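Journal club side-thread
Mid-discussion, someone asked how the predicted structure for our own chain would compare to the paper's figures. Pasting it here so we can look after the session.
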Amino acid sequence: GAAGTAVGSRIKGHQKRGGSKLTKEHRKYGTVAHTNENRTSRICSGCFVPVFLSRGQRVRDGESKTVRLNGSVDCKNPTCPRRRAGNGTMGRDANAANNIAISGSSILLSADHSALPPYRPFSLPTNNTSSMLDDFSPQIHPLGCDKGLSFSR
């Protein structure tokens, strides 16, 4: 279809430069890559384990109530490097932006141009969260940081 191409719409006083026109213009100045944003707002950018909305206490009419805070996420993984550093809670948008950057750079740097397993659509089990935690917990390479992260599968 014509979704995202500004066909049939009127943008008052501005050129219609969506989709491929904008991509072609950006390619003049640098590398352009399209990234699938699958799961980027739902997993931790430090350990690739699902995150949960932060919770807070609100007092209303003398009654304390637990509410979800939609602007931040918590990583519950005790081995998460970000959580160990004291940053287990992060802004939801900042976490998603980090994940998009990681996903995009992994696509650019991989030989087969595929994202890391946590960012691939349909690559995770859908019914068992505990197996998800086991399958995609990052393993630090025994030889040190210069070898990077490896994922057990």
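Post-session note: Residues 128-133, 135-153 have pLDDT under 50 and may be disordered.
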